[in-house]
Amino acid sequence: MVPCAQQLQLPTAPLHILRQAGRRVIPLPRPLRRSRRTTAAMASVSSGTPSPVVLGCGGISVDYLATVASFPNPDDKIRSLALKMQGGGNTGNALTAAARLGLRPRIISKVANDAQGRSILNELQSDDVDTSYILVRIAIPQRFSANHSGGREREFTIHLHIIVDEQTVQASQRKIPILIDAERKREGLDELLNFASYVVCSAKFPQAWTGASSIPVALVSMLSRLPNIKFVIVTLGEKGCLMFERSMTDASEAGEIDAEALFKSLEKKVDLSSTIPKCIASKPNLRIIADGVGSISGRLLLGTAEVIPPGELVDTTGAGDALEQFYMLVNFLF
């Protein structure tokens, strides 16, 4: 995810009028614009400057959400109580959140010229996401996978093939902040992480990527191995999220504190009776160490999650993608 996309060398004409490698690119429908008054948008209007641009490159998909009476056992055939179809994918979710927060998102991806592809485009455009740089192909491979989100809902997702190009390198050369969404280890991710300014990842990723014994130790390892990163956020589901923020100044003269012990001290401050999300932060500019890994100057921040009654919670898929854009917005405003 790249803020300030207007500084990158995007194509001189939108992709809906380009031809690539002899293959025709299908014209895209023009976006349907809706007025949104958010904090960022109102701040932009009052200052007389346009809202910042965020460029995203990655996956967009269609989610089929089927509500069932109970989760099926192997080989069971059951009827759904309700079925709905909506857009998904990490980049699609994140840029939709960016648009609703008042930023100006643009997306680089690829879809097929079929019902699912057109549905994706229409939904993004209705949320003011600029789809001019989405490549629409007459026929591209599609993958279908089934996932379950717990409770009474089962989710089926079509993952569409995506484009990845040199925009990350260009952004890095121009010192434009880059946010990487890291769900799991995959080919090419290590190279991308070297360009990252910020990383938001799943609960399992830090330990899987570093081989560390715990999440706090893994975060120390990640910031040690990736010196350009300003912070790493780990989403923890119903437990909220954990951020390790690097200090701008070195804390070598400060007393050292163990990463796991610091994390446990923050957990003890959580008010289990409260349903309102809160941020519990350590002291700033600590020298945080992990045995066998090293030390980093910074601080830990533990964010709790709002307690939502089970009857009101349907599906948490995409919550982490929306969280990314909140931090992107804060980065722009402050």
UniProtKB/TrEMBL annotation:
Ranges in coiled-coil conformation: none
Family annotation (Pfam families): PfkB
Protein's name in the database: Putative fructokinase 7
GO molecular function term, any single one: fructokinase activity
Keyword Kinase: yes
Keyword vocabulary terms for this entry: Kinase, Transferase
Superkingdom classification of source: Eukaryota
EC number(s) stated in the UniProt entry for this protein: 2.7.1.4
